[in-house]
Amino acid sequence: MKSVTNNGPVEINPGEITSSCYMSAADIVQDFERTEIQFQDAYTAGTLQGWMQGYPASRFAATISTGTSGGVGTDVTEAAESGIGNVYVDDLPEPVTYATLPAFWSTEVSDVAAAKPANPFQALCDKDGPCLNATSSAAGSVVDMATFSSGDSSQNLALYN
C-alpha cells in the first residue's frame, strides 16, 4: 500500500503485535486495539516490546478502549515506554467508534504532552527525548488533536465532529 501512494501516511491496523514484515507496507502500524486491562496486562507481560524497539515510536499506534480516568496516565506512560508514539484512550467499550471524546480527555491531553517515548532509534526534538504534544482546536471541525513530533516529522491524531 505504501508503494502506491505518496499523498500522506499509510496506517494499517492488524490490531495486535505482529512481525516486522508489516513495516514496509505502512508508515504507522496500529499494533494494539483492545481494552485498558488487556493493554496493562500486555505491558506487564512485556509483549509490547522486542523488535518494535528497532523503529521510531512514531511508527506505532495503540487504541485503548474502556479506559478510566485513573488508568489513562498509566496507559499513556506505558505506551511511551513501549515505544508506541501514537496512543488514544477512550472510555467507551469495544469497538472504539471515535464518536465522542472520553470524559477524561483533558487529563489524557496532559498525560500525552508529558510522555517521552523510550526508543534509542528515535531522533530527539529536545535533549530529554522525543515529544508528544496534545492540543485543542476550535477551528474548523477538528475537536482535539494529539501530535507526536520528532525532528522533522510529526504524526497527528485528530478527532472530528
Would you give an account of this structure?
This protein is α/β, with parallel strands linked by helices. The chain has helices at residues 36-45, 72-81, 105-114, and strands at residues 11-12, 28-35, 60-65, 86-89, 131-136, 142-150, 153-160. The strands form two sheets. The protein has a four-stranded parallel β-sheet. A three-stranded antiparallel β-sheet has the order 5-6-7.
Number of helices: 3
* Fraction in beta strands: 25-35%
Q: What structural class is derived from the secondary structure elements?
A: alpha/beta
Globular, elongated, flat, extended or rod-shaped: what is the shape? globular
Q: Please tell me the overall pLDDT.
A: 73
Write the H/E string, N to C.
Answer: EEHEHEHEEE
Distance between the termini: 28 Å
Poorly predicted runs of 5 or more residues: 120-161
Helix proportion of residues, in percent?
Answer: 10-25%
| Count of extended strands | 7
Q: Measured on Cα atoms, how large is the radius of gyration?
A: 15 Å
Main beta sheet: strand number and arrangement?
A: 4 strands, parallel
Strand order of the main beta sheet, please?
A: 1-2-3-4
Q: How do you describe this structure in short?
A:
This protein has 161 residues and is of the alpha/beta class. The protein is built from 3 helices and 7 strands; from the N terminus they run ββαβαβαβββ.
Topology:
Layout: E1 11-12, E2 28-35, H1 36-45, E3 60-65, H2 72-81, E4 86-89, H3 105-114, E5 131-136, E6 142-150, E7 153-160
Parallel strand pairs: 1-2, 2-3, 3-4
Antiparallel strand pairs: 5-6, 6-7
Helix pairs in contact: 1-2, 2-3
